[in-house]
Amino acid sequence: MAAVVQAHERECAVCTNDFTTPKILPCGHLFCRECVISWMDSKSDAGCPLCTCPIVEHQGNSSQIAADVVDALPTDSVMEVIVESASLLVMVDLCTVCEDLTAEYICMHCFEKMCPSCMKIHKKMVVSRSHDVESVSTVTPERLAASRPALCADHVTEKADFFCVDHNLAICTQCFSNKHRTCLDVKSLDEKIQSAEDAFGSLREKMLTAEDNLKKAIVNLNARVQTADVTQQQNMALVDKTCDRLQSMVDECRRQVKKLISDSVSKFKKSLCDVKSELEKRLGKVTSHKHLVTRATAVRPRPALIHAAQTLTDRVNSLDLSDELEAEPWVNPSSEITRYCDDVVKVIGEELKSFKLQLLVVEVSSLFNLSHVQHDLI
Ligand SMILES: [Zn+2]
Ligand SMILES: [Zn+2]
Ligand SMILES: [Zn+2]
Ligand SMILES: [Zn+2]
Ligand SMILES: [Zn+2]
Ligand SMILES: [Zn+2]
């Protein structure tokens, strides 16, 4: 039925001895009554020595005396009986029958510790033949606690058969008909034990359900943490992707604008070059005709000079001597650049707008989930 209680589970974490009047703190941890009192006296607003949870659930009045606070905490009566049984087993006693030899056995029915020979007699006697006798070294404290007979609160030698609810006591038949004659609520002990077992059954059920729900809620929270991580990664990737695209748009814009500028300058430079080579052609003609004229003037052959003067005058008159030739004006590409940049700015603006819409939302239904879990716990 019950899980075996390990020896260390009977120990108080403060004094490291087996519990004496184990008190149940609101967190569920157990400590001896005296240990909690001295712990609380040692420092104000002391919490549980193990988990620091408050010792009193609603610590309204800190001026309360520690002993009163601790006495108001419930006592773990099951642990009390287990500790008592454990110390009974550990104690080296003389046989309760012969009072001569060391007791090595215990009768689970009469609760008497016996030496091996008295144990053999106990097992032969008609009244005790059916009794379960165990070795003191092998029986567990909780098995001993479970087989302990309920004794009358007043006559510790009498077995209790009733439970007076009015006095909250187990009582024997004799006490039932005397002291508790006028008590209003007295039930058979078996009936009270059965209802206590039923109560434990439903408490266990309740704790199992709550434990299960809390574990599920924690698993759910872990899953949500993971989802948040994944969403973050996806959003980061989206940011990178979008920024890369915008960056390449900006790069393309830079390339195009530079091309516009260099195209317009190249065109202008080409026009200047054209004008220059035209003027150089004119210069060449002028220079060679200047030689002809200079030579004629220096040599002066008669009558060739007359013919030459006629021919060269006609020739020079036909030459273009002008130094005026306009290059094509430079066309500033700024309006085209402005149009181009405006388009890119517009596209980037729209990209950014849709980018905000594409970002994944981490949580929408957190409030709902939480209230759902809390509802399950009630
Ligand atoms: Zn203690
Ligand atoms: Zn605690
Ligand atoms: Zn004996
Ligand atoms: Zn016996
Ligand atoms: Zn009694
Ligand atoms: Zn009574």
Total helical elements: 10
Q: Give the overall silhouette.
A: rod-shaped
Find the structural class using helix and strand composition: mainly alpha
Strand content: 5-15%
The separation of the N and C termini measures 28 Å
Strand order of the largest sheet: 4-3-5
Helix-strand topology string: EEHHHEEHEHEEHEHHHH
Q: What Rg do the Cα atoms give?
A: 55 Å
Low-confidence region ranges: 367-378
Mean pLDDT, as a whole number? 89
Main sheet properties: 3 strands, antiparallel
Residues in helices, as a percent range: 55-70%
Structure overview:
It is built from 10 helices and 8 strands. The longest helix has 111 residues, at 189-299. Helix 7 (189-299) packs antiparallel against helix 10 (366-377). The chain has 378 residues and is mainly alpha-helical. 57% of the residues lie in helices and 6% in strands. It is rod-shaped. Mean pLDDT is 89; it is low at 367-378. The relative contact order is 0.05. The strands form 3 sheets. Strands 4-3-5 form a 3-stranded antiparallel sheet. Strands 7-6-8 form a 3-stranded antiparallel sheet. A hairpin with a 4-residue loop joins strand 6 (162-164) and strand 7 (169-171). Among the domains are: 149-184; 199-371, no CATH class. The chain has helices spanning 33-42, 66-71, 77-90, 116-124, 141-147, 173-177, 189-299, 304-318, 334-358, 366-377; strands spanning 22-24, 30-32, 105-107, 113-114, 133-135, 162-164, 169-171, 186-188. One zinc ion (ZN) binds next to helix 4. One zinc ion binds next to helix 4.
